[in-house]
Specification:
By secondary structure, this protein is of the alpha+beta class. Strand 7 and strand 8 form a beta hairpin. Helix 1 packs antiparallel against helix 5. The longest helix has 34 residues.
Length: 357
């Protein structure tokens, strides 16, 4: 299935980019080169030299110019060739690589791989709670060998915590907890409320909950296309409003690498006023999430992807349960958005062809 191209995706965390080295990352099956100019401005180019198709990341970054390792052609941040060391130095007008619109916000580098004229910054999600200007933040990126929608659906159905994470955040109360699914426009919520729960080991440890206490837990997942997931966790003493700890927010951006692999960007944030304790918590939360996806969710998602292969998931006619409600709404929304984008591109192509003829 094609990707939704007219959308913002995280290409990297801001701290990954440097004016001294090149970072390469495949996004929507396209090889992308990322770096900073000497001024600090972030740049995203196609990673393929248009001359002999050599990968530019094997070259070098010299004063803001990317030098191809094959013949030394040097390209600027706008993608145009700035230096041809051969002969009289003539540079053909079409000697350029694609330059992608990018925005640096919320501690992340966001990239737009669709029509550059439609790259509207107002369409960026609100991730202000992980903006390092105002929050204590921990960033991580985990590669998953599965389609990004399989990972989104994993997040939207947290009943699996009981079975995949029994020794950390899961408990025997989750599968039978209260589930509410809401859709407003293209946004889907999955809200799970767990009552009279014995605190799972990780929750008990990080929130200092006595062993004999029972808790009520809210797990609220919000999904927005193309792969924006936010998770809110609230923990209170059962039957009361007494909170253990604070309202916890985390963010994920699922950036497709290929149709069967994903860059899973994690971020956890707390107000700076929490100081060292808050920083330790976000770092611990990030490490726990990485462990969970590498050791618990990841192997299942990898195996699931192997089973699905190149098939469209719904074409395999899965037997659906009520717990799949949010996941199916998100998948249906993505299918509709992609189909509309493909149809619009075909119309534009046909109108252009007719005008030429």
């Amino acid at each position: 299935m094609p990707f939704l191209r007219n959308a913002w995706y995280i290409a990297a965390w801001a701290e990954e980019l440097s004016s001294e080295k090149l970072l390469t990352r495949t996004i929507l099956s396209a090889p992308v080169l990322l770096y900073r100019e000497p001024s600090g401005a972030a740049v995203a180019l196609s990673n393929i030299c248009p001359h002999r198709f050599a990968p530019l990341h094997k070259g070098k970054l010299d004063q803001g110019l990317v030098e191809c390792p094959y013949h030394g052609l040097a390209f600027g941040s706008d993608g145009r060739c700035k230096r041809n060391p051969h002969g009289d130095g003539y540079i053909p007008a079409n000697l350029k690589v694609r330059s992608y619109p990018i925005v640096e916000r919320f501690g992340a580098i966001w990239i737009w791989l669709g029509d550059p004229d439609r790259a509207d910054e107002s369409l960026l999600p609100d991730f202000s709670f992980i903006d390092p200007k105002h929050n204590l933040v921990a960033h991580r990126c985990v590669p998953i060998k599965a389609n990004y929608m399989l990972i989104a659906e994993n997040n939207l159905d947290l009943s699996h915590l009981q079975f995949m994470h029994p020794n950390s955040v899961g408990s025997d109360k989750i599968a039978n907890s209260q589930l509410e699914i809401i859709q407003e426009g293209n946004t889907v919520w999955s809200k799970r409320r767990i009552y009279q729960e014995k605190p799972p080991a990780y929750i008990s440890r990080v929130r200092s909950i006595p062993e004999d206490v029972r808790i009520d837990r809210l797990l609220e997942v919000r999904w927005e296309p193309p792969g924006i997931v936010t998770l809110v966790i609230d923990v209170t003493r059962s039957g009361t409003a007494e909170k253990f700890g604070y309202l916890s927010h985390s963010a994920q951006c699922l950036t497709p690498e290929t149709e069967s692999s994903t860059h899973q960007f994690f971020a956890f944030g707390l107000p700076k006023e929490m100081g060292e304790i808050g920083q330790k918590f976000v770092e611990s939360s990030a490490d726990t999430a990485v462990f969970a996806f590498k050791e618990e969710d990841g192997p299942i998602l990898d195996a699931q992807q192997e089973t699905v292969g190149d098939h469209e998931f719904m074409s395999l006619e899965p037997i659906l349960l009520p717990i799949d409600g949010a996941a199916i709404r998100a998948r249906r929304t993505m299918n509709q958005l992609i189909a509309a984008e493909v149809e619009a591109a075909q119309v534009i192509k046909q109108v252009t062809k007719s005008a030429i003829n």
